[in-house]
Amino acid sequence: MDPVRFRLLNHVEVGDHFPAADRPLHSCAIEDCVSGAEKIKTDIENKAKDTSPQPGSTDRTEAWGVAFGCHTSGPSSKEGMSSCVLLVNDDGTVQLMTGSADIGQGSETSLSQVAAEKLGIDLSDITIHAADTLTTPYDTGTFASSQMYVSGNAVYQAAQNLLDNLIRALCRKYNLESDQITHQNGKFVVITESGIKTMTFKESVGEVAFGTRGTVLIGNSSFKAQDSPPPFAVCWAKVAFDRRTNTVVVKHLIEAVDVGTAVNPEIVIGQVQGGLSMGFGYAMMEEIQIDLRSQKPISSDMLHYKLPLSMDMPQTHVYIASGYEPTGPLGAKSVGELSVVPVAPAIVNAVSNACKQDINSLPVSKVIIPGAVRLTGWHSTVKNGGKK
Amino acid sequence: MKIRNSFLYLRPSSIKQVYEYLQTRENATILAGGTDLVPLMKYGLKNPGYLLALDQIEDLKKIEVRSEGLFIGSMNTLSTLEAHPLIREHCPVLSETARLVASPQIRNVGVIGGNILQDRRCMYFNQTEFWRAGLEPCFKTGGRVCHQAPGSSSCRAIYYSDLAPLLMVMDARVEYFTDCGYKYDSLQKIIHQHVLANGSPEGKNPFITGFVIPHLSDGTWLKCVKHSVRASLDFPILNGAMLYHPSSNSNQSGRVRIVIGAVSPEPTELIETQGQIEEYAAGRGGSIKEIIETAVSETNRKSGLIRETGLSLKARKKAFGAVASLTEEFICHLEGQMTLAGNH
Fold first, then answer.
1. A102 Cβ partners below 8 Å, 6+ apart?
2. Would you call A313 an interface residue with chain B, using a CB distance cutoff of 8 Å?
3. Min CA distance, A46 vs chain B (Å)?
4. I need a labelling partner for A386 at 20 to 30 A (CA). Which of A35, A283, A319, B173 fits?
5. What mean pLDDT is predicted for residues A80-94?
6. How far apart are CA B181 and CA B178, in angstroms?
């Protein structure tokens, strides 16, 4: 049976429950993941037609392998918690304070984007202060792929709280009822007897911030996750196996992800590429080896613990599916760890398909050597003779 | 990690002064590129009293065409070998092979002399002092045992130079400095002596000042190979070089040389396989299949694989299939060249 169809037949859908989940699934864009990944795969195959081994070649075979994966958005126990303070300056720029630490994945950027989008201001108008225990509010920490869903929801709620406070301040100033001011498409719409007036966030702040009748505008939130919506991924790996040299080269890795709505697609692509690298190393060569004679680990440095470097990586291809998670900030779910999940099984399935043997343990290097034989060209001392 | 023992760092300004220091200073060691020596010093495996840095001696960085061949000073970095116009013109295969060594950062610092005289490696040796504390000293650290093969009477550590097989098939010669001035010897002999000396902490090497790659006659062709898990920086699982040197007498077969490295304490010449290819090329029998089988079995027989990190011995032995592929490619290329020359 076609491996993709088999997996789709068994896949969860919106409304289904995961075995241990008490809430139904709100979003799942697995079909788009499948079609997006398969389109990339077809393009690769079309380009590779000239270089693939001829059918019947006994020494070198190429094969694809596929795997699906999913993860959580924050701790699956729903213990994820975060909080946020948004403090508005008199010029309408905003200080964002969060306990969420950016560990290189770009969460400071994407959390700022959530606030900017919700408030209707430019990203450059946000200044973020993250993970300073003296001045920022509590966050459970940067783990469990939780920054966008958990911390992002805290930022989103703080922004909503700020908008509510701003509307209240405007109502006080103009003696309006709260239903006369709304925030739509990034602007405040004020309905009075004299007509409808729209104001930007900055204009509104200018009306009510500070001064004798003004106020200090603050939004805050304390978010406790009630859900941990799973993001989904589909990964394809293409490998070339050389029977004679017992070597395998991973040529292509494709990963399509359903992360809900990607707040920052470039960051998502970067996260997936990182996950592909981690999954590739995990599948092919990374291992802590213990030597029985010395009773000590022998993978004791970065020469012997074989982490892939950039030139060891196969070609990577990332597709972001169109999805929307209704419980997520701006429709987002998580991405981080998700991207690692399906890589090793996809590679191992491809290797297994190519060498026609089951691979039952990782890394693959226990039985087949990763990496290719590199050769110089033929060099001849005959001029015009034929360096080939 | 810091170097814990103290030493005096000297920067001699001439080849003669280096030699003088080597003779007069107790426990003086040459610091060439340092990519091999410095980690060993950090591990407490090398504790020189004097470090003689060669970086100021311009004579060791010469690259020139001489009547006997291309001369390359021992202090030329691997990056220089990749890029130098004289090497690219007269020995382009060396440029390409240098690019297969380690990583760009290492190649920018590591030099050809150090690459040839690099320490043999073993997972019981290339470890920190703390790591080695629980094991009795091995041959390389002054003991009487090889932890890889406790019954062995000598050290079984592997010699991994990626340049050595190529320089060996080209019959490169080594220039070194002695009491009597410059002397020359075959690279093969120097590597053999180095391998023996490198099996104990007392072993000494000659002070190598350069390498002479003889001019190869017209019609010679050659190729190099490196097989490693990571293309980015790893030591090889197997490396090698193949050379065909046609005979000037059309009635005689040409000469074949195949040297395989990184599978034993020193590079191995596949003499039996060479003979079979020469016979086959001369039309005196044999088949490609037989030659390939000979190449693999000869590599197997002459190899002295030991356990290293990352790969099982079983997987490494299977990698000898690369020798089969190379041999087949070599013969096919040979047949193609002979057809072109109208000799076959």
1. A108, A130, A131, A142
2. no
3. 27
4. B173
5. 96
6. 5
Confidence grade of residue B336 (pLDDT, cut at 50, 70, 90): confident
Rounded distance between C-alpha atoms, residue A331 and residue B40, angstroms: 55
ipTM of the complex: 0.89
Verify whether the Cβ–Cβ distance B227 to A366 is below 8 Å: no
- Phi, psi values for residue A277, rounded to 5°: -65, -45
Q: With an 8 Å Cβ cutoff, are A366 and B232 in contact?
A: no
Closest listed residue to residue B106, CA positions, set A282, A309, A281 = A309
Q: Please name the amino acid found at residue A252.
A: H
Confidence of residue A107 (pLDDT cuts 50, 70, 90): very high
**pTM for the whole structure:** 0.92
Cβ-defined contact of A378 to B97 (cutoff 8 Å): no
Per-residue pLDDT tens digits for B103-130: 999 999 999 999 999 999 999 999 999 9
Rounded mean pLDDT, B319-331? 91
Q: Which residues of B touch A287 (CB under 8 A)?
A: 310
Optimal mutation site among B121, B221, B263, B330, interface A, most CBs of chain A within 10 A: B221
Task: State the number of CA atoms in the 13 A half-sphere of B225 facing the CB.
Answer: 27
Q: How far is CA B76 from CA B67, B142, B154, B211, in A?
A: 20, 32, 32, 11
Which residues in chain B (113-132) have CB-CB distances under 8 A to chain A?
A: 123-124, 127-128, 131
Beta strands in chain A (DSSP E): 60-70, 81-88, 94-98, 126-130, 181-184, 187-192, 195-199, 218-224, 232-242, 247-258, 290-291, 296-297, 315-320, 369-370, 373-375, 379-380
Tell me the C-alpha distance between A164 and B327, whole Å.
Answer: 78
What are the distances in angstroms from CA B42 to CA B8, B38, B128, B308?
16, 6, 8, 21
Supply the pLDDT for residue A385.
39
- Compare all CA atoms of chain A with the CA of B319 and give the residue at the minimum distance: A245
Question: Is B318 in the A-facing interface, judged by CB distances under 8 Å?
Answer: yes
Helix (H, G, I), strand (E, B) or coil at B107: helix
